[in-house]
């Protein structure tokens, strides 16, 4: 639950308006058969609704665009209408594409004029705290063309030579210095014009939108992420997410 007494980042008439795009067209095969990942329930509420509320919890976010499965836009619109969402935020549902990159581009295309900052957030990260969202927005307002929330790595990382057959031993070829590495989360924040240019010019498969901006030769900056902004991809992640929600209800009445 958001606290309306908390000031939004750089609040004021001159502050750039922020929109969030949530690509939610994936099937989530690692969670097993059933509903698409974004529609799986956490404490009785679909993950997508938790993710939408997480973006709308920021008073800086005035529009949330949900990119639905190509044949599921009506279902997602009905889902949003059925759940209580902040009245100060507008919501829009558009059909997505065959890939995440195509879906984000379709969400960008649907943005009305006047939103100069764009967040791109994974529907599978339903529990990102509002302070993290605000920190990303603030960094873009301070002049960064692209911002990612990120955490230091707890584990040692090895670079390997991939095996030809899954399950075979893989030779280790290097041990990167862990202090220089970060695990990147979402929402990732962008100057809108920069993100549009990246999607219009960068081709090939990418793992995140910030990587596209890197390919333009621009600097991407990292701000502190949060351990609760983890991505729900495996059944064990669902258990952890339920535990986080239970703690929030106990401590904060969330």
From TrEMBL:
Family membership: Belongs to the IspD/TarI cytidylyltransferase family. IspD subfamily.
Keywords on record: Isoprene biosynthesis, Nucleotidyltransferase, Transferase
Site (Transition state stabilizer): 30, 37
Site (Positions MEP for the nucleophilic attack): 178, 231
Gene from which the chain derives: ispD
EC number: 2.7.7.60
Domain of life of the organism encoding this protein: Bacteria
Keyword Endoplasmic reticulum: no
Gene Ontology molecular function terms on file: 2-C-methyl-D-erythritol 4-phosphate cytidylyltransferase activity
Ribosomal protein keyword on record: no
Annotated source species: Streptomyces cahuitamycinicus
Pfam families: IspD
SUPFAM superfamilies, sorted: Nucleotide-diphospho-sugar transferases
Catalytic activity as recorded in UniProt: 2-C-methyl-D-erythritol 4-phosphate + CTP + H(+) = 4-CDP-2-C-methyl-D-erythritol + diphosphate
Job of this protein: Catalyzes the formation of 4-diphosphocytidyl-2-C-methyl-D-erythritol from CTP and 2-C-methyl-D-erythritol 4-phosphate (MEP).
Stated name of the protein: 2-C-methyl-D-erythritol 4-phosphate cytidylyltransferase
Pathway stated in the Swiss-Prot or TrEMBL entry: Isoprenoid biosynthesis; isopentenyl diphosphate biosynthesis via DXP pathway; isopentenyl diphosphate from 1-deoxy-D-xylulose 5-phosphate: step 2/6
EC top class named in words: transferase
GO biological process assignments: isopentenyl diphosphate biosynthetic process, methylerythritol 4-phosphate pathway
């Amino acid at each position: 639950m958001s606290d309306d007494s908390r000031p939004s980042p750089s609040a004021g008439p001159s502050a750039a308006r922020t929109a969030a795009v949530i690509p939610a067209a994936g099937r989530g095969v690692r969670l097993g058969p059933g509903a698409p990942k974004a529609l799986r329930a956490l404490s009785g509420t679909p993950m997508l609704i938790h993710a939408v509320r997480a973006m709308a919890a920021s008073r800086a976010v005035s529009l949330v665009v949900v990119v639905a499965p190509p044949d599921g836009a009506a279902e997602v619109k009905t889902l949003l209408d059925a759940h209580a969402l902040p009245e100060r935020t507008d919501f829009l549902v558009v059909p997505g594409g065959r890939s995440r990159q195509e879906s984000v581009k379709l969400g960008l295309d649907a943005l009305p004029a006047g939103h100069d900052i764009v967040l791109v957030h994974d529907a599978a990260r339903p529990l990102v705290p509002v302070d993290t969202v605000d920190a990303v927005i603030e960094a873009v307002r301070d002049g960064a063309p692209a911002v990612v929330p990120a955490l230091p790595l707890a584990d040692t990382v090895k670079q390997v030579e991939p095996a030809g057959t899954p399950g075979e031993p893989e030779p280790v070829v290097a041990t990167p210095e862990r202090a220089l590495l970060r695990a990147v989360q979402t929402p990732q924040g962008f100057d809108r014009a920069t993100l549009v240019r990246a999607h219009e010019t960068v081709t090939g498969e990418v793992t995140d939108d910030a990587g596209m901006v890197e390919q333009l030769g621009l600097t991407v900056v990292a701000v502190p992420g949060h351990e609760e902004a983890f991505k729900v991809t495996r059944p064990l992640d669902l258990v952890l997410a339920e535990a986080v929600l239970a703690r929030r209800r106990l401590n904060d009445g969330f």
